[in-house]
């Protein structure tokens, strides 16, 4: 199967010539390191600015234009919602997309953070690079003032899904039909007390390997989305 390359919304956001600048605020060294590693898996062009105090956060904001902030809800003596309000009081971060990250996902915490003005809420324990990528994309597009650009990004997402789905159907349906016919042939031979032709088993094995290789190709195609476009 030849997979035609379709522009993916992530390429327009994370494969730009300039890096995506993300501020990560967490007072736990382990969680801070984990978030940094997950962000590097999202895309190599992500620049992470890690901080564990309000002073460090303000220093980053004083010297760097930030595109998005990942903010821990529980910060020792601090509360993430209070830090959120500090961000909103600064002219340079008043409209900054902020995603709250927490080890807790009770309804009260989620509602409180959204009311405080956060764009989204993520649970630390079940956080993956794919989930983080999706959340970053949604947070950035939701803050875009240009509705046409948001619409075009949405259209690009749909095009990717439809293109892969059609490719999967076209590749898998004939293989599955062959496997079904071959299995039916072997079953009929068994019912009649006959030994099936060994070639039928060989064909089933070949088709299964072809399906396996196809899924490897789809996986490699998906991984290609994270590579910069030149």
List keywords for this structure.
single chain; 230 residues; alpha/beta; Rossmann fold; five-stranded parallel beta sheet; 7 strands; 13% strand; disordered C terminus; Sig_transdc_resp-reg_receiver; CheY-like_superfamily
Helix percentage: 55-70%
- What is the straight-line distance between the termini? 24 Å
Q: For the largest beta sheet, what order do the strands appear in spatially?
A: 2-1-3-6-7
Taken in chain order, the helices and strands follow as: HEHEHEEEHEHEHHH
Question: What is the general shape?
Answer: elongated
Q: Main β-sheet: number of strands, strand sense, barrel status?
A: 5 strands, parallel
Strand runs, count:
7
What's the CATH topology name of the largest domain? Rossmann fold
CATH superfamily of the largest domain: Response regulator
Structural class: alpha/beta
Low-confidence stretches: 1-17, 226-230
Total helical elements: 8
Short description, anyone?
The chain is α/β, with parallel strands linked by helices and 230 residues long. It contains eight helices and seven strands; from the N terminus they run H-E-H-E-H-E-E-E-H-E-H-E-H-H-H.
């Amino acid at each position: 199967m030849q997979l035609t390359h379709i522009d993916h919304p992530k390429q327009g956001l994370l494969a730009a010539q300039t890096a995506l600048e993300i501020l990560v605020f967490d007072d736990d060294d382990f969680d801070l390191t984990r978030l940094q590693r997950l962000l590097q898996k999202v895309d190599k062009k992500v620049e992470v600015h890690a901080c564990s105090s309000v002073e460090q956060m303000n220093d980053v904001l004083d010297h760097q234009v930030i595109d998005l902030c990942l903010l821990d809800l529980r910060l020792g003596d601090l509360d993430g919602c209070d830090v959120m309000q500090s961000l909103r009081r600064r002219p340079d971060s008043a409209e900054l997309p902020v995603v709250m990250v927490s080890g807790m996902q009770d309804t009260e915490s989620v509602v409180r953070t959204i009311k405080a003005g956060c764009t989204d809420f993520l649970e630390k324990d079940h956080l993956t690079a794919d989930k983080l990528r999706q959340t970053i994309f949604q947070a950035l597009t939701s803050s875009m003032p240009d509705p046409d650009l948001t619409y075009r990004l949405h259209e690009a997402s749909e095009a990717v899904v439809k293109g892969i789905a059609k490719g999967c159907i076209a590749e898998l349906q004939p293989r599955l039909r062959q496997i079904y016919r071959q299995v039916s042939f072997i079953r009929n031979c068994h019912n009649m007390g006959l030994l099936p032709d060994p070639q039928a088993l060989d064909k089933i094995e070949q088709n299964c390997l072809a399906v396996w290789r196809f899924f490897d190709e789809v996986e490699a195609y998906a991984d290609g989305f994270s590579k910069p476009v030149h």
